[in-house]
Amino acid sequence: MKQVYTIVVFTENKIGLLNRVTSIFTQRHVNIESLSVSDSEFPGIHRFTIVIEQEQEKVEKIAKQIEKQVEVLKAYYFKDEDTVFQEIALYKVDLSTIDNKESLFQIIEDHGAIQNSTIGDLLIIEKTGHKKDTHALFEALQPYGIIAFVRSGRVSLSRYAASFSGHLEQFELHSKEIITNHN
Amino acid sequence: MELVNEQQNKAETSTTPMKITGAEAVIRSLIAEGTDLVFGYPGGAIMPIYDALYDFQDQLKHVLTRHEQGAIHAAQGFARVGDKPGVVFATSGPGATNLITGLADAKIDSNPLVCITGQVGSHLLGTDAFQETDVISISMPVTKWNFQVTKAEDIPGAIAKAFYIATSGRPGPVLIDITKDAQFAELDFQYKKCQGFRSYIPKPRLDFEKVEAAAGLINQAKKPLILFGQGVILSGAENEFKHFVEKTGIPAAWTLLGLSAMDTDHPLNVGMLGMHGNYGPNKLTNEADLIIAVGMRFDDRVTGDLSTYAKNAKVIHLEIDPAEIDKNVKTDVALLADAKEALHALTESVSPNEHSEWLAEFRSHDKIEQEKVIDNELRPTKEGMTMGEVIRRVNEHTNGDAVVVTDVGQHQMIATRYAKFKQTKSNVTSGGLGTMGFCLPAALGAKLSRPDREVVAVIGDGGFQMTLQELGTIFQTGAAVKVIILNNQFLGMVRQWQQLFFDKRYSSTELVNPDFVTITKGFGIEAQSVDARDNLDKGIEDMFTHEGPYLLEVIVEKEDNVFPMVPSGASVSDVRLS
Ligand SMILES: Cc1ncc(C[n+]2csc(CCOP(=O)(O)OP(=O)(O)O)c2C)c(N)n1
Question: What is the pTM of this model?
């Protein structure tokens, strides 16, 4: 059964690694629903958060292929219930074309969104939430004319105490005792 | 962003610093890694490196192939029979893109290669400069690792890392792309071999509880079958493997790349797996109660239809690459480790055993195959010559001691089915990618790697014409490769499929060939053609007694087929004998 999985990847900070990771999805004809890359709690280590909708078996194989890349430290995958995740969306509307501004502001408030900034007549609305929440606001704002809309990739943290730092120690330990394979 | 973190990268060999150009640093780094032979082709963006090479010709020989594809296949052949990675030079743009087929081939067949490409100057990157191509992006899915160097001081570290990655763990090709300005610029050169970095664990640690679990399954099994692949050869585990097989008495069958890891005449060697493999191992896979897979990856050409594959068997998988576990076949016990270490531990833990009744089943299948297929192939009574009888005569001459290099097609399947091997690292073929044109350059590389060994190249008339320009390189190097063209005047393997599965509609598979003997002689290489059985012995004799390279064309039956055959998508137990 296909469901949403979040793949979290810790990598060295290297040019082209994003390409290498995404080509693993391309080769398997898997669409990436969302992707975000940032630093992590460890200096020099990047964190990729990739959302796909797939069967678990396929997700597991993809995670293994990602982890196989020599500059990838670790790949994990999670179901939604195992993580806390968020996305952020921005919406641009033109206040000069909106007669009933009060109702617009009410919608913003009801959705727990904020007025991020106004530039002349332009208003940027900001909403943090899951896709269904940011999408609901999108629908509600549509009658007012959305000039531009953007939703970020998902960011996600697991619900568990166990962290990547344990693994990192192992990696560091291991890298001190590596012996080459060819004699 | 530093390429190599100094703390992570401890010194093994270290030289005192000296100021040299990036180009010279490339050469000195290769020499420090023990490289004494490079295959390549020059061009604008790599000229500084070729210029630096000029001063080191006594330490680092260069083989000028006639095409970059030839260079990389030669490097593959070099690596497959020797114990060093293959090293390749190519220029930017078309030089670099001509490497792609070889990279893909080396990646899927786990050949250790270090490829160095020149690149346009870093100030020109992204300007569509003359002969600029984004080889890093293009080669990403077909390399184990790749890296672009734009600063001279990063060259030694990048090359050290390249060698380490190419040769450790599951080996593979790596590519270093060096901008022209980095080749010209100077650096303080000091070489340190790479001994590891934190994101890469080449050898997983063997789990001894798993060893015990595997031994338990092995001791209980009534009909166990060992499937061995190239992992045995890559980890140098041939002896450990032999001990394991002999102690347990379990029949062992090989994948195309596992061939030569074990003596082909060993009583427990039950032959080849897969599409054109032997009758017994294919049929009996589905009767086995235990599969012990060693350093192989359950390729679809081996397994046929997965949903009916080995359903009565538990599966033990000895494998160095975690991504291979459960990829195609679900494992009961995964022994993630280097094969040598895992086999040693497993052999200690298992009880000595014999499986004579089970083995007898293989023998009776062999008998059927012998009567229905092998006799006709090796000792035909019809007029036209078969590919098999040529290979039989090669065996008589080489005694199983030669390196046999094959191209792709019917001749490949016949040669690997019937060639005898006593020594490991003697079978060189393009397995996973099935690259026509691989054989001739790979045979050249193999001969240059092991000049002490007889190297026989077996090629189809189709594949020969994909890289035949490498006859020029064979002539120039004098490499005494013995080339046999099995000429059926067809793209035989495709024709076979057309005959069996496309109503004999021979769409674009018939070849009108040139005169191969004249062509070969034009390259300065001795050659003869044999079109009648009476002349075959002499032809083979002439080829082997000739001192230098030699090409023997044998005109074989036009429309012979390779059997047994597991039709694609069918179950291995549905293997056909005709
Ligand atoms: C580069 C490449 N192109 C196409 C193929 C598909 N193919 C596989 S076998 C084969 C026929 C090979 O013919 P030949 O070299 O004459 O060998 P034969 O099968 O007759 O022994 C072809 C075209 C391939 N494997 N590689």
Answer: 0.95
* Ligand 1 mean position, distance from CA B509 (Å): 9
Domain that includes residue B116, residue range: 2-189
Q: Are residues B6 and B56 in the same domain?
A: yes
Active-site annotation holds for B130: yes
Please give the distance, rounded to the nearest whole angstrom, from the Cα atom of residue B463 to the centre of ligand 1: 6
Of A27, A64, A71, nearest to B141 by CB-CB distance is A27
Q: Look up B68 and say whether it is catalytic.
A: yes
Of A65, A180, A183, the CB nearest to B195: A180
Residue B526 maps to a domain? yes
Which of these, B442, B450, B396, B485, lies nearest to B83 by C-alpha position?
B450
Say whether B316 sits in a helix, a strand or coil.
strand
| B130 and B9 share one domain | yes
Its ipTM equals 0.92
For the stretch B503-529, pLDDT in tens is 999 999 999 999 999 999 999 999 999
Helix and strand counts by DSSP (H, E) for chain A: 5, 9
Element (H, E) at B290: strand B290-294
What is the atom index within ligand 1 of the atom nearest the CA of B101? 1
Q: Map out the domains of chain A with their CATH numbers.
A: 3-83 (3.30.70.260)
For B451, the 3-state DSSP assignment is coil
**Which one, of A9, A31, A30, lies nearest residue A18 by Cα?**
A9
- pLDDT tens per residue across span A140-152: 999 999 999 999 9
Instruction: Give the minimum alpha-carbon distance from A166 to chain B in angstroms, rounded to a whole number.
Output: 13
B246 labelled catalytic: no
Residue B8: pLDDT band by 50, 70, 90 thresholds?
very low
Q: How many domains does chain B have?
A: 3
A contacts of B193 (beta carbons < 8 Å): 180
**CA A63/CA A55 separation, integer angstroms:** 12
Does the residue B163 lie in any domain? yes
Q: Which residue in chain B has the smallest CA separation from A172? A: B198
B133: left (phi over 0), alpha (psi -120 to 50) or beta: beta
> Which of B406, B407, B408 has most ligand 1 atoms within 8 Å of CB, for mutation?
B408
Q: pLDDT tier at B2 (50, 70, 90 boundaries)?
A: very low
Task: Report the atom number in ligand 1 closest to the C-alpha of B414.
Answer: 21
> Residue B435 C-alpha to ligand 1 middle, in angstroms?
8
- Spatial strand order in the sheet of A72-79: A34-39, A45-54, A3-12, A72-79
Residue B10's pLDDT band (cuts 50, 70, 90): very low
